[in-house]
Q: What sequence folds into this?
């Protein structure tokens, strides 16, 4: 047990160290959602207000709508980035070193997930702080309750990254992940437009958005920011996390997984 | 002994009468109804059927009755606020839209939009005591706190007409910007504010000289100036703010009552029209015609906290204390 905790702390420390030493990464993680908030929301400009939908109690501007989606965007990019770093670790051999630890493999991968999620949550809070400076604020309790929502959402997206990294053999393939995972996941979700708006364009689009686990991560964060629990979103996120984690454990199992084929 | 009996009586009375929360009454122009909102729970508790096209809405000063302009029924209805029943109707002239109750709690000054007159009605004898010719399409009505001056604004003539309430005669006419909609005196009676819907301004007059003292314009980032149309407005009693409904721009402007500076804009529902404060002026309720709801604004925070669905095309709002 004690060994497991030491392992978790060590992995978190390593991730934190890597994060601190990569200031550019932190900056990029902050600038990305801010550019969306400032440029995209300004272009959309629903100055006349969006219709009321839960958890909102009254009319909101588009800037207010988009913030929870951008929080989840930070988690998504960070989850994918950590999968990139896993590919790198594997190429460099430090992954092999980690996996030779006597602790169970699932615990090692889970520790890695927790570590990268915690790092991304720091980035989300930094983003929320800047959003607050531009006048987009949430109830005080929302800033506390959003933490578990971010943790779950981050773990789910991190697990997806882990699953993807087990299938990617080379760093160069990561561009494919950008194209085929990050962009569709982000655009076909409730991050940028509410479901009813998607339904106006096409019901198929709406249905895709409705089953996209990223949508549910966004909604979980959105409701939590207003001190509310979206139970459906919670179940979706937990379910997707279980599936992705199981998949990545299988992927990283040297006996069966894809790693063996590539090794 | 006597004290304990008294205390028991007070206690029993307290038990017998459930403490009802204060209410906001909203006239729904298209539904011919009034929606009653509970100020505590911010929910609609009652919907009352009234005459056709209800618009202007105000309580007697002692809140014993409600006066309501039923425009298409060409009458002012007097309603019992406890039961919601129409007690009787007052003669009002044709198409009454807005009105104002004189501080004597007896005389109603009513704008008759189609006839270009202001009708003065005695609510006790239920008779018309005067009809005053004013500009075309009169709408906004105000009366000074001392009761000496009544104001009618006319939409097409673009004027504020000043009426001496002792003689019921006009004594001054002042030009304002296009389509004046609403008028209010400041609490001390020294200033008259008039909103102009098409002109997009509020004109402030010095009451003593009827001279223009200031003009307030509005500008909301990202919204075309044509949509920024000041209509109803309300002043806080502490002399701090004036809240101005900006019609189809879906915003309420917050204006400094002293400096005339626009301090902030608050997003509310579609085509915001009139508004009412609760008793301690901590909350402001705005009627949003097109979206059919009422947005509640936290006055201290200057932020919208909730929008409540009411009937179709809510027009006016009035506050009723229940304790």
A:
């Amino acid at each position: 047990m004690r060994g497991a905790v030491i392992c978790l702390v060590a992995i978190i420390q390593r991730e934190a160290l890597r994060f601190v030493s990569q200031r550019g990464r932190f900056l990029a993680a902050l600038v990305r959602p801010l550019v969306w908030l400032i440029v995209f929301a300004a272009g959309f400009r629903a100055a006349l207000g969006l219709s009321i939908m839960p958890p909102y109690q009254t009319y909101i501007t588009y800037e207010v709508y988009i913030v929870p989606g951008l929080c989840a965007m930070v988690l998504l990019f960070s989850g994918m980035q950590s999968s990139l770093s896993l590919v790198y670790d594997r190429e460099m051999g430090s992954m092999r070193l980690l996996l030779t630890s006597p602790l169970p493999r699932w615990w090692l991968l889970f520790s890695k997930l927790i570590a990268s999620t915690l790092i991304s949550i720091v980035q989300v809070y930094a983003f929320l702080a800047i959003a607050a400076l531009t006048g987009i604020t949430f109830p005080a309790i929302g800033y506390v309750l959003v933490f578990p929502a971010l943790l779950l959402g981050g773990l789910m997206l991190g697990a997806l990254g882990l699953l993807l990294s087990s299938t990617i053999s080379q760093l160069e393939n990561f561009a494919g992940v950008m194209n085929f995972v990050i962009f569709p996941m982000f655009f076909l979700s409730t991050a940028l437009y509410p479901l009813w708006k998607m339904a106006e364009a096409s019901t198929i689009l709406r249905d895709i958005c409705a089953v996209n686990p990223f949508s549910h991560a966004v909604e979980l964060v959105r409701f939590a920011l207003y001190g509310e629990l979206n139970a459906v979103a919670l179940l979706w996120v937990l379910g997707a996390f279980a599936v992705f984690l199981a998949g990545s454990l299988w992927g990283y199992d040297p006996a069966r997984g894809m790693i063996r084929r590539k090794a | 002994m006597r004290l304990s009996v008294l205390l028991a009586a007070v206690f029993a009375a307290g038990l017998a009468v459930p403490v009802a929360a204060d209410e906001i009454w909203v006239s729904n122009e298209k539904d011919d109804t009034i929606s009653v909102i509970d100020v505590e729970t911010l929910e609609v508790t009652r919907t009352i059927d009234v005459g056709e096209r209800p618009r202007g809405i105000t309580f007697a000063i002692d809140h014993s009755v409600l006066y309501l302009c039923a425009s298409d029924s060409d009458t002012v209805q007097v309603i019992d606020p406890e039961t919601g029943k129409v007690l009787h109707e007052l003669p009002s002239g044709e198409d009454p839209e807005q009105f104002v109750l004189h501080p004597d709690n007896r005389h109603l000054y009513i704008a008759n939009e189609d006839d270009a007159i202001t009708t003065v009605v005695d609510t006790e004898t239920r008779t018309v005591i005067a009809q005053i010719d004013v500009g075309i399409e009169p709408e906004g009505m105000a009366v000074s706190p001392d009761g000496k001056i009544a104001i009618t604004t006319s939409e097409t003539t673009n004027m504020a007409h000043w009426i001496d309430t002792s003689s019921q005669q006009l004594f001054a006419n002042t030009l304002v910007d296009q389509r004046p909609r609403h008028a209010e005196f400041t609490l001390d009676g020294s200033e008259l504010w008039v909103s102009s819907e098409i002109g997009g301004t509020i004109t402030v007059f010095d009451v003593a000289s009827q001279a223009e003292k200031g003009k307030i314009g509005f500008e909301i980032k990202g919204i075309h100036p044509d949509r920024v149309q000041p209509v109803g407005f309300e002043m806080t009693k502490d002399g701090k703010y004036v809240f101005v409904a900006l019609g189809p721009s879906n915003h309420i402007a917050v204006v400094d009552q002293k400096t005339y500076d626009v301090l902030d804009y608050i997003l509310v529902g579609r085509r915001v029209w009139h508004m009412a404060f609760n008793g301690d002026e901590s909350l402001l309720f705005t009627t949003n015609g097109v979206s059919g709801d009422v947005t509640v604004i936290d006055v201290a925070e200057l932020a919208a906290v909730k929008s409540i669905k009411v009937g179709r095309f809510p027009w006016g709002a009035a506050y009723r204390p229940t304790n």
